Amino acid sequence: xxxxxxxxxxxxxGEVHISGAKNAALPELCAALLSATPLVLHHRPQLNDVRxxxxxxxxxxxxxxxxxGSVTLDAGTIDWPLAPYELVKTMRASIxxxxxxLARCGEARVSMPGGCAIGLRxxxxxxKGLQAMGAIIDLEHGYIAARASKLxxxxxxxxxxxxxxxxxxxxxxxxxDGVTVLDNAACEPEIVDLARCLxxxxxxxxxxxxxxxxIEGVTSLHGAEHRIMPDRIESGTFLVAAAxxxxxxxxxxxxxxxxxxxLDVLRRAGxxxxxxKDTITxxxxxxGKAFALVTAPYPGFPTDMQAxxxxxxxxxxxxxxxxxxxxESRMMHVQELKRLxxxxxxxxxxxxxxxxxxxxxxxxxxxxxxxxxxxxxAGLMADGETTIDRIYHLxxxxxxxxxxxxxxxxxxxxxxxGTATDAxxxx
Length: 427
Ligand code: EPZ
Description:
By secondary structure, the chain is α/β, with parallel strands linked by helices.
């Protein structure tokens, strides 16, 4: 398995371009299933999760071609509305094929996604919502077997705010008979971007980005072109890395308007941040103050940024408090941060991080995507060398991260498999 070798202590300085958003690209790839004519997505992020989703769709019969940063998906014929366990177990977001397949083909067979390091990750809301739209759903042999001659519009209220649950039902409703109202819907910017893509395909949607979304079903959707929004979590990750290494970075192709809660916490930690059209500049000469955050559905502080902020918290003066309210076990990074010298107490979903003067490099292990990003930031901060194992987690959600960080002055390189002597070769 690949490892990352990092020699810490270099402040990050320079410019970095932000890639297309993973969590917008994944539902928008599935949206292609809704149309018999091709969908073209621009600004495609080169991520393992995107490749996995494309593999899944091509197995169903979707013809996929790539051309300088864009992807064309032709779902003219869908031979096999199946999402097999072998692929779903590597990427839970495969569940996003369920709604579109049901709406387009009237049937779907999608493996139940298992849990993962951060939580049980049930999909009951997806199932309940589709049943409310008239789908017959059986759970058999680890699969969701769904069928519906024609989905019907319904008024569905989510019991919990679910991002992919909202996306699945939003996509299904575009081809349902009649009007669908989704209440207690997620408001994440990726849902707004998905709605923009679906609208370009001919869907009739009102209220995306608010807790109530209304969709008027149409008989068919058509192909379109759509540019995937910038990745707000990648943006936040680079801003935190700059603050944590006391550097100064400019993000290009970034959207500050969807990062308010993250920018607010960084400013409270002492960072100076200026924003302009698609750029964000962070200067960290004032960074060093403890802070508090509570994760929440958008526009609250994003759970996908909690681990990264915890890395910053390890070396500010005072005690920072981070409360995770979305997932039941999204603190796996704490143990690894402690190996680097962090002083953290965890009580349930609350972590109290007592600032220390510095971290010291060590070998640590990534457990999930955002925990990996946290450990990269900690390695960039630490004295000496840090080796991060199992970075396949990282490759799922960050495009060329070691190249982008090297471009900002970091001493970081990837070792294939890797042996103890590799660390010694870092210059
Ligand atoms: C999406 O996951 C994101 N993934 C996650 O990003 C993100 O952390 C999460 O939303 C929260 O913002 C994608 O968009 C591909 P949820 P999702 O359904 O949709 C419970 C990353 O690092 N729930 O909003 O799976 C659930 O257990 C990933 O990029 C149910 O109980 O999350 C959780 O406690 C990690 N029943 C809460 O709701 C359901 O049917 C929010 O989950 C669905 C969810």
